[in-house]
Amino acid sequence: MSRDSRDATGPWDATGSWDVTGSWDVTGSWDEDGPPHPLALRRTGRSEQEPDRLPEVRELEALGWEPAPEDLAWVFLPYVWPPADRTWIPDRSTHWAVDTRLDGHGHVTGVEATPLAEAELHDLDRETEELLDALGLPHRPPGRLWLLRPIGPYPAVGAVLDHLRAVARERGVEFRASPELLSLTRAELATLTGSGPP
Q1: In this predicted model, what pLDDT tens digit does every residue of 142-196 receive, in sequence order?
Q2: Which candidate, 128, 126, 135, places its Cα nearest to that of 181?
Q3: What is the mean pLDDT of residues 99-116?
Q4: How many Å apart are CA 108 and CA 148, to the nearest integer?
Q5: CB 56 within 8 A of CB 42
Q6: Angstrom distance (rounded) from CA 100 to CA 120
Q7: What is the secondary structure of 59-120 as a DSSP string?
Q8: What contacts 24+ positions apart, CB below 8 Å, involve 158-165?
Q9: Helix, strand or coil for residue 181?
Q10: What is the rounded CA–CA span in Å between residue 187 and residue 196?
């Protein structure tokens, strides 16, 4: 059944998204019980690669997937993105702290990279969790890297985000994680996928 025919048979609600069963999900979802993308199952164990350099991320990019934006204004994006066009993989990457030493003239004299400890990684997640709390959304399941596919007439996720930013500007919605940006994003994604009003 197409999204268009589903829309014709039921009411539209701008606050939700399509779930994997083809039903309209009024609240969104982190796909808590859903499995990772099958390509992720071929690799296990910690990698020294940064998230965007993991082999499974590169493979998924070749198939049209793109890492979800890291900008905190979009902290909620995987939650409201159409389920058919989002996926996740286990985060087996390493996040690095880089210490650069300079001499008195500003020239680099040394660089040292060390992996961030679990406690430091949790501190990085704290701001994300606080923003989600402020939006009234549940916390993201830990240890996931989210990937999205473009929707509507747009060739890339970045183009979808440019469209959303433009609509926010037109409507006077500030570009920051807020209930207003969340509501606008849900409604626009529904329109772009044909599940909302034209």
Answers
A1: 888 999 999 999 999 999 999 999 999 999 999 999 999 999 999 999 999 886 5
A2: 135
A3: 75
A4: 38
A5: yes
A6: 19
A7: HHHHTT-EEPP--GGGTTHHHHS-GGGEEEEE-----EEEEEEE-TTS-EEEEEEEEPPHHH
A8: 158/66, 160/192, 161/69, 161/74, 163/188, 163/192, 164/188
A9: helix
A10: 7
CA distance 180 to 76: 12
d(CA 114, CA 183): 40
- Which H/E stretch holds residue 145? strand 144-148
CB atoms near residue 9 (< 10 Å):
7
CA 133 to chain centroid, in Å, comes to 17
Comparing 191 with 92, the larger pLDDT belongs to 191
Using the structure block, give the residue that is written with the tokens 């772009």.
192
Pull the structure tokens for residue 14.
């701008």
What is the three-class DSSP state of 31?
A: coil
Residue 77: which of 160, 194, 191 has the closest Cα?
Answer: 160
pTM, full prediction: 0.72
For residue 61, pLDDT over 90 is answered with yes
